Amino acid sequence: MLMFGFAVAAMAPALIISRMISPRKKSNPVKFLPMECGQVPSGEGRTHFMMQYYAYILMFVVFDVMAIFLYAWGSTILELPKSATLPIIGFLGIMFAAMAFALYQSGRRNIW
Amino acid sequence: MSVIAPKFKFSEFVKSILDNLFWFLLIFALIGVPLVQIILFYVEMPVINGELLTPFLALTWLADPSRTLPILKAFMTTDLFRIAAFPGFGFAALLAAGTIFVERKMLAKLQLRVGPFYCGKIEGILQLMGDGLKLLSKEIIIPAKADKPIFWAAPVIFVGAAAAFVALIPVAPGWVVADVDVGLLAVFAVIGFFPIITILSAWSANSKFPFIGGIRALHQMVSFEIPLILSLLGVVILTGTLNLSEIAASQSAFPWIVFLPVGAIVFFITILAELERIPFDLPEAESEIVAGWLTEFSGMMYGLVQLGTYLKLYAFAALFVVLFLGGWNGPMIWPPFPEEIITKGIEAGPITVQIPGLPLFSQETLNGIVWFVIKTVGVIFFILLPRGVFPRIRIDMLLSLGWYKLIGMAFINIFIALGLLYAGVLGPGGML
Fold this sequence. Notes:
The structure holds two protein chains of two kinds. Chain A is mainly α. Chain A has helices spanning 2-21, 54-74, 85-107. Chain A has a domain at 58-112. Chains A and B meet through helix 1, helix 2 and helix 3 of A and helix 4, helix 7, helix 8, helix 10 and helix 11 of B.
């Protein structure tokens, strides 16, 4: 992507210019500490974190791929015979049932 | 009030400016000029008025007005112009800057405040430039133990990904930076980068608020990506193509929002979630977790992230226009270019000036741009509006909205599209 390269090439100088003209005050012990509303931070920044809705991310991995598969069908539907739609309806049915089951399991908070 | 420079001397000031000027000229003459010559050697120059454009002739465009417009026209067909100026970065950044200003003023009016008022005398119109200069001149602070390369790169990559998204949007017939056949899939690929950038920058900051904000952003973007993908399938079924230019061109008679309103509503809600706008702004909920994943960014890094966010906003609004509102299609409202100027030239008293190559853009292009900008500004307005109206929702409400309701509606939308196709209303050989 040329545009990506252009944007990176155009934006990196902004950081460099900013670095050149911005003031560099003397450091003090709390200046480079992570922000914690004025308190001195306690504990690690990258901690173990309870991700309560982790199941939804697992579902994304599966259903994203299935949704992209549908595009291979959707973009060629005008050339396909009408009988080719039935298997896709079946695929949609399987996808919908699987999604309902996965959502039911994700909604059961006590097993996560 | 602090003093700018305690030992200020005017002569020293002038001397320092002259010093800098001297060094700039010396370096430019020794390195810059040969570099330009070397680069020009490899660039293919266009043929203007029957002769090849040499660097010397290119520099005479100021003195010779018969060459100015052809040179400009030749430049407008290059990739550099497309990327940097019109359908690409400059155009999008201009609209994004307008969006920021309008958002601040409009929100202020909605909440009975005045908003930016002093900078620039008239309704604070220079506030944006002031903010930009302020951000540029602030010190960049990186927290201790942060992962420095990733932390530095994250804002730049964010802007780059947003720009890559902008590159895929067709603005007028033929005016698009990257006209790829799998345009819509490329859009999904670019959208897929944003959660990765967010979670990388959040993890690299080594701080708790960005970390929580990054995880929230991951949940939100990931759970709204599937309704987004499924809601656009209806348009693809009806047009049979993934190319965004062809999708926009297919709506010359009626926009798809007439037939697929359900898909349009689902797509609009997912836009709000992907952009982290107010009903779904959990990743940067300022009253809970300071600024979410933006907490540790300071100075120009924060400015770059803001720029990327608003470029993304423009790109999503433009995508909505292209897919559902008919893109550049609309009745011809732009007046035709006066014929006399092309055939006779401009007459001003005794003088007649012939200007070759005058209509820079064709009438259709200008009309398309006008309609595209009008529609995009309308969609941006509706994206901004909820910010003054709605409160923030909880994360379980967000997930249930994304996974239960929107996906169900997206499936309904697919069946509406299939029904329209097989009932013979739309598509090849259909009634419309």
